[in-house]
Amino acid sequence: MEAFADKEASRLPPTSRPARVNAAQFAYGYLKALILDFTLEQGDIVTETEVVSATGLSRTPVREALTRLNDERLVELQPRRGALIPWITRRQVHELFDLRILLEGEAVRIFCDNRIEPSGRLLELCDEWDRMVDEGRSEGDVMSVVRQFHSTLVDSANNTMMAMVFSSLADHFQRIGTFSFRQDASRMRATEAHRDIAMAVYRHDKDAALGSLRACLETGRRLISQQIKY
């Protein structure tokens, strides 16, 4: 990966901060969006100067935003060089999917064991997912709906701490999923597997829901691992 470390960041799109929006929060959201939709590619280097020029912000909020992204491992700060957009690795994929299997599986168990009343939101998101693919929306847009599906699944267990942990992983989940869709656009049509999960959850059929969820996640793990170089 070192051979790619000097790759320069693509030109950052210009933007301006709306009134009454915190400058550091704006810079953080701006940069994170560019990372998650791959405007900033793996191996790119982005500097404070580039972000200041694109946003019109001062260096202090830009530095705060980059530090926060570094803490979340969405960039790697490198002295006197800038912020490196890290490469997605097989190890990262396996670790993320291990955690997702634990968290989402436990959410399904809680939902089914307690026979929590379903909201219908999971199937609504599947419908929205299909519409977005039919409309030719971007990989990042489609992946944002996939993210909502799995976040909604975890949230349905009504376990605040579990939802908080899953939320902390969601940006990495979205980035990896968007990467995979960009490699193979046919993977964007995966709603049937998710409909199977939703219908089993709504029936409180724990075994079927866990089986469908596990199959979905293991398929995703295998396919994404095959797409990654490192």
UniProtKB/TrEMBL annotation:
Report the Pfam families cross-referenced here. Answer: FCD, GntR
SMART domains to which the protein is assigned, alphabetical: FCD, HTH_GNTR
Instruction: List residues of the HTH gntR-type domain.
Output: 21-88
Which UniProt key words apply to this protein?
DNA-binding, Transcription, Transcription regulation
- The domain of life is Bacteria
- Molecular functions (GO terms): DNA binding; DNA-binding transcription factor activity
Q: What is this protein called?
A: GntR family transcriptional regulator
Species for this entry: Mycolicibacterium septicum DSM 44393
Its lineage reads: Bacteria, Bacillati, Actinomycetota, Actinomycetes, Mycobacteriales
